[in-house]
Amino acid sequence: MSLRSFAALALSIALLPSGVAHANGVALFAENCAGCHGEAGEGNADLRAPALAALDGDYLARQVEHFRSGVRQVDPENEMAAAMVTLLADVSEADVAEIARYLAGLSLPVLADDTDPPGFRSRGLYSGCISCHGARAQGTPALNAPRLARQYGWYLAEQLDAFRSGRRGVHPADEPGRQMKAMADAIVSEADIAALVSYIVTLEP
Prior knowledge:
Layout: H1 3-14, H2 18-32, H3 34-37, H4 57-69, H5 79-88, H6 93-104, H7 122-126, H8 130-133, H9 153-165, H10 175-185, H11 190-200
Helix pairs in contact: 1-6, 2-6, 4-6, 9-10, 9-11
C-alpha cells in the first residue's frame, strides 16, 4: 500500500465516531496481536515480541506493510516473527490502520528490562542518534524516526544487528531504513551496540 493510500485510509478511520474506532482497535488488537505483544502492548521478552504501546501510528502501519511486502525481513531463527508475518497476511489494511491508531493512543509501556547499566562511553555513542531520534530518544515522526525510549534493550540490539546484516534498510522502498542502516554500519563492534543500548534504555521520552 502506498503512503497516499494509507493516509486516505487513516483519514477515513479518523472520521469514525471516536468510541467506535477505539472499540474496533481494542478488539482487533486483542484478536491479532495481544497474545504475543501483551494486553497493553507492553511486549513479551520470552516471545521476543517488542513493546508497541504509544509508538507512532504511521510508523507501526508502515512496518506492518514492510513485513507483508518483504521490505523488512525477519530473522530466520525467530520463529515467532515468521509466524507474525503469516498472521498479518490475513489482516486487512483497514484493520491494520485501526490497530495502529489504537496502539498510538496507549500509555507508554512500563518494562522490566535486564540490560546492563551504561558505561562511560554509552552517552557519547548515542550522540549520533540525537538528530533523528531526539535527545531523550522520544522519536521524531516527521523524520520517520520511532521512539526508542521505553523499548526493550534486547529488541533494540536485535534491530541494530538486523540493519548491519542487511535484513533491514536495504530495500529501495525503505528510505528511512536505508538512512538507519548507514548509521548502524558505523557502529564498529558488538560491544558498542551493547553500550549504546544500555544508555537508550535509561532515557525517558
